[in-house]
């Protein structure tokens, strides 16, 4: 029996499902598979998976089932919680709810620290056609700070895709991985993109070391792990010229080669090791890799980018995106800080290298809210661009809270100001406490403006982990449960804030 056809013959399918299940049904979630009708709905603050089947019960899911009658036909209605087992089963039943590899398609990473932002993200993606979304995206650091696991990050994306009925494919980014153990837990969760972060192996001092010190460091590099020798590397780069475009000619001096090799050599050995380990444990499963050198102390010069990419190729590493440390400042939660003309000239060289040695995408890490550079990067990189965002989704959740529950926002604001100096230590930020206004000095109408002021926005951005995990003396979350309650009670306001904010991010990249 075709359950969908049976319900459609009776009239309004979502309305009938609501009558049968007692849920408020998300219409876009309704779909069919092997004769079953699958949907998602909510009752109060709880979302539920629903399966209407002509058989005794739907296979693969953990559901509480009962018999219902439609047009004289007896059907089985199963309702289940949004637990991991049901998310895994859903990915098997509906492949569009599982991540895929995206290759070099123009893309945007939409990190979701709360796990409920995916519907809003997808509405922005629908509005800005032609950009592939990466929806399950979190670093190990972010997961630790929010008490989430790779499975939870993946499952939250799956449920959001199902709720919105998104069938165009999405990626999943295990971000800023540093160890084999990081890889293991993310492979187990089913991630498809693995972003390797070699920052702990980058020698930032090499950017300013005297040449004699560089020569000693160069001789001591792990040449066996790099499958090369000092002389072979000199021969590969010195005395050669690469005309990549009118904007980019690569020619190494001895000093430039020494700085590039000493700065990144150990990191390249680490990246090759991570790549080989991932390739081994993935077996025949599809995957892709991004390389991130953005969280280093100094910019990645074009010759250094060329060296990194050339050496990775020689070492057998394949990647779809690379994130240099661009010139200027990419601070959290705020626009680009620097000379736009200088940035444009520098980025044009990075784009030429990515085309010539790839093609691969240039990734904009800490890319959220960098509105002034989006038109530049879109024009110069074309489709070879990946915008990576994370914390700005949390800030838009606070934006929605400021609108509908200003009292809670005031508490979070004052808490963030009080904890900023501690929580900022692992971030590149320059906000100053003296320029932040406590909530008592703001009217309700001024709260949204405060959220978008430079200093307050950075304080709110970097304190997300503490806000979401701190507990009171009785062991209860101080903010977390109330944040979720407000956002779930005002779901559409939350989605609208996300859609409007990300449409502004994505529109400059729509060709």
Main attributes of the structure:
511 residues, 16 strands, TIM Barrel, 8-stranded parallel β-barrel, globular
Explain briefly what this protein structure is.
This protein has 511 residues and is an alpha/beta fold. It is built from 20 helices and 16 strands. The relative contact order is 0.10.
Helix fraction, binned, reads 40-55%
How can the largest sheet be summarized?
8 strands, parallel, barrel
Q: Taking all residues together, what is the mean pLDDT?
A: 97
Strand content range? 15-25%
The tally of beta strands, per DSSP, is 16
Known CATH architecture of the largest domain: Alpha-Beta Barrel
Task: Quote the distance from N terminus to C terminus.
Answer: 45 Å
How is the largest sheet built, in terms of strand order?
7-8-9-10-13-14-15-16
CATH class of the largest domain: Alpha Beta
**Number of helical runs?**
20
What structural class do the secondary elements suggest?
Answer: alpha/beta
Description:
The chain has helices spanning 3-10, 13-21, 84-93, 118-127, 140-146, 150-164, 180-189, 211-219, 230-237, 254-282, 302-314, 340-357, 374-381, 391-404, 406-423, 447-451, 454-462, 464-469, 480-489, 491-506, and strands spanning 24-25, 31-33, 36-43, 46-53, 64-70, 73-81, 107-110, 132-139, 171-177, 193-196, 242-245, 248-250, 288-292, 321-323, 361-364, 385-389. The two termini are 45 Å apart. It is α/β, with parallel strands linked by helices. It has 3 domains: 3-93, no CATH class; 96-200 and 285-392, Alpha-Beta Barrel (TIM Barrel); 396-507, no CATH class. The strands form 3 sheets. Strands 7-8-9-10-13-14-15-16 form an 8-stranded parallel β-barrel, surrounded by 8 helices. It is built from 20 helices and 16 strands. β11 (242-245) and β12 (248-250) form a beta hairpin. α8 packs parallel to α10 (254-282) and α12 runs parallel beside α13.
């Amino acid at each position: 029996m075709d359950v969908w056809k049976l319900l459609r013959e009776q009239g309004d399918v979502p309305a009938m499902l609501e009558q049968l299940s007692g849920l408020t049904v998300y219409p876009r979630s309704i779909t069919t598979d092997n004769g079953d009708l699958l949907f998602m709905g909510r009752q109060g603050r709880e979302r539920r998976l629903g399966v209407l089947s002509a058989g005794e019960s739907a296979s693969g899911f953990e559901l509480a089932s009962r018999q219902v009658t439609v047009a004289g036909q007896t059907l089985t209605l199963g309702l289940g919680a949004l637990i991991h087992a049901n998310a895994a089963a859903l990915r098997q039943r509906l492949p569009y709810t599982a991540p895929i590899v995206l290759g070099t398609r123009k893309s945007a990473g939409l990190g979701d620290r709360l796990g409920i932002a995916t519907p809003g993200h997808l509405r922005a993606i629908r509005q800005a056609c032609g950009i592939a979304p990466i929806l399950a995206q979190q670093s190990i650091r972010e997961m630790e700070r929010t008490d989430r696991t790779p499975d939870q990050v993946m499952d939250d994306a799956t449920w959001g895709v199902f709720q919105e009925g998104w069938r165009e494919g999405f990626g999943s980014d295990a971000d800023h991985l540093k160890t084999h153990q990081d890889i293991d837990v993310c492979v187990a969760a089913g991630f498809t993109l693995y972003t390797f972060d070699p920052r702990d192996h980058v020698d930032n001092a090499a950017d300013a070391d005297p040449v004699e010190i560089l020569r000693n460091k160069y001789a001591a590099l792990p040449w066996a792990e790099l499958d090369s020798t000092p002389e072979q590397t000199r021969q590969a780069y010195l005395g050669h010229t690469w005309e990549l475009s009118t904007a980019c000619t690569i020619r190494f001096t001895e000093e430039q080669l020494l700085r590039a090799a000493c700065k990144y050599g150990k990191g390249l050995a680490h990246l090759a090791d991570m790549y080989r380990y991932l390739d081994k444990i993935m077996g025949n499963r599809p995957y892709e890799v991004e390389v991130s050198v953005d969280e280093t102390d100094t910019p990645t010069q074009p010759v250094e980018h060329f060296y990194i990419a050339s050496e990775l190729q020689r070492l057998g590493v394949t990647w779809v995106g690379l994130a240099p440390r661009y010139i200027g400042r990419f601070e959290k939660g705020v626009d680009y800080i620097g000379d736009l003309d200088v940035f444009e000239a520098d980025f044009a060289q990075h784009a030429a290298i990515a085309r010539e040695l790839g093609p691969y995408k240039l990734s904009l890490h800490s890319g959220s809210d960098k509105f002034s550079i989006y038109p530049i990067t879109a024009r110069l990189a074309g489709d070879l661009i990946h915008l990576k965002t994370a914390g700005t989704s949390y800030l838009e959740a606070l934006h929605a809270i400021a609108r509908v529950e200003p009292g809670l926002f005031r508490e979070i604001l004052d808490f963030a100001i009080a904890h900023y100096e501690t929580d900022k230590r692992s971030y590149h930020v320059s906000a100053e406490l003296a320029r932040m206004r406590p909530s008592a000095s703001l009217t309700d109408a001024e709260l949204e403006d405060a959220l978008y002021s430079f200093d307050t926005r950075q304080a709110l951005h970097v304190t997300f982990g503490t806000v979401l995990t701190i507990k009171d003396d009785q062991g209860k979350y101080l903010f977390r449960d109330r944040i979720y309650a407000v956002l779930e009670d005002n779901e559409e306001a939350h989605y609208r804030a996300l859609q409007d904010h990300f449409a502004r991010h994505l529109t400059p990249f729509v060709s």
